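Handout, section 3.2

Students often ask what a structure token actually looks like in practice. Rather than define it abstractly, here is a full record for Deacetylase PdaC domain-containing protein. The first block is the sequence as you would receive it.
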Amino acid sequence: MRPTTLLPLALLAACSAPDDPKATRSAPEATSTAPEAPQPPTQTPVTARDVHEDNDLYVFDYSYPAAAGAIPALKDLLDKELEKARADLKAEAANGRAEAKANDFPYHPHSHSVEWKVVTDLPAWLSLSTLVGFYSGGAHPNYAYDTILWDRIAGKRRAPVDLFTSKAALSAAIRAPFCKELDRQRAKKREGYEPGGGIPEFEECIDPAEQTVILGSSNGKAFDRIGVLVAPYAAGPYAEGDYEVTVPVSAKVLAAVKPEFKGTFVAR
């Protein structure tokens, strides 16, 4: 069962279109009867993996884009994660159905869905994010965010916050613009609701570095914006859904970046 919430993650993605092809003059038709030169073998393009299983016990969906499949180590990591998620879902669903039968109540198929999408594809980095949807027989499905930041040079996965001197430093650098935008989105969802209006547990700002942090780029060369993906219950009740806040890389953010990654970021 896929969650119905759509992901506006393209706000962080670099959207550069290829240049228009230039017109060229056609050469005169050749009259030689010499045999044509052999053509190099055509490489099979790397395709994304997309698994879908739907039966009486569970619904399982897992996919990742070609950009991730083109990196052997990352493809292996995702394939292993896929198999583990499927095995865990099967075991959980089997237990759930057995419990339902033992207690004589209806069983509703469990579900797990992951759809990795490209946030930013840079020469040295590939930034991915996903909405993980799951249902385990409760009152409603739920979901959470996840991210992968692949370091092409080191050939390994990194957590976005690991590029900063500390979580606290990152939080301090983006907290003011994050909280301002979060409150704006809260007021919009709550139809003009102002702080102090009756939802005290969801009035305070939250720590952005404790949420799912993703790195984005508008120029295709360096990270110049930071996304903070907030799942339900973290900043508001379930009915409000998720929150997605984007803040620019600023001088304060650059000051919080580890020295070895300074060249990976640029202030806007």
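Discussion prompt for tutorial groups: The first strand starts at residue 49 and ends at 54. How would you have guessed this from the sequence alone?
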